Amino acid sequence: MFTGIVQGVATIEEALAQPGLTTFRVRFPAENLDAVTIGASVALNGTCLTVTRQQDDCLFFDAMQETLRLTTLGDLKPGDKVNFERAARIGDEIGGHLLSGHIHTTATIVEIERPENNCTLHFEVPQAWARYIFPKGYIAINGASLTIGDVLGNRFNVHLIPETLRATIFSAARVGDRVNIEIDSQTQTIVDTLARLGYDRPAG
């Protein structure tokens, strides 16, 4: 389980493609590796992965074909930066909202506004997932818990403060970039329950 509060930015050192999976060697800030154990869960751009090995300041992860298909991890190459969060522990402050680290879909950045001391990112999601996106609702984008701004059809935006830009990879975002999306589980449950009762929300 994760909180959606990104703990820092890590660097992809190597992405080794093998039959059925890709092994990533990822370099982390040394201060974020305290008490890491083999088998621990770490979210990279919101995707829950399992630590398979540690070498100095690098952790190794295996991503299966299905994970690569459903997320943006298959696009990663050496030198790329990723948001990371280590799994939450009992007693940790939940500053964002609870996340599973299981990605539902991806979205594409279609517009970026950068007024002074602000940044607004506009996204487009597949039509089928628009039903779960509401103004002022929660969403996780590349593992960061964010509040949805405006929604129009299958497009929505989020407003980022300077601290979010400093602590994540969003400061380097470009139009056309793909991002991982995890829909808020409570929102999904409510929408699906209402749909089963005949109160379906149009997908458009």
Automatic annotation (TrEMBL):
Q: Name one GO molecular function term.
A: riboflavin synthase activity
Which UniProt key words apply to this protein? Repeat, Riboflavin biosynthesis, Transferase
Q: What is its EC number?
A: 2.5.1.9
Q: Does the keyword Transferase apply?
A: yes
For this protein, the record's InterPro entries field holds: ATP_synth_asu-like_sf, Lumazine-bd, Lumazine-bd_dom, Riboflavin_synthase-like_b-brl
Task: Give one GO biological process term.
Answer: riboflavin biosynthetic process
Domain of life, source organism:
Bacteria
Q: In which pathway does it act?
A: Cofactor biosynthesis; riboflavin biosynthesis; riboflavin from 2-hydroxy-3-oxobutyl phosphate and 5-amino-6-(D-ribitylamino)uracil: step 2/2
Q: Which residues form the Lumazine-binding domain?
A: 1-97, 98-194
Q: Which reaction does it catalyse?
A: 2 6,7-dimethyl-8-(1-D-ribityl)lumazine + H(+) = 5-amino-6-(D-ribitylamino)uracil + riboflavin
Sorted alphabetically, which Pfam families does this protein's record hold?
Answer: Lum_binding
Q: Give the Lumazine-binding repeat ranges.
A: 1-97, 98-194
Record's function text: Catalyzes the dismutation of two molecules of 6,7-dimethyl-8-ribityllumazine, resulting in the formation of riboflavin and 5-amino-6-(D-ribitylamino)uracil.
Q: What is this protein called?
A: Riboflavin synthase
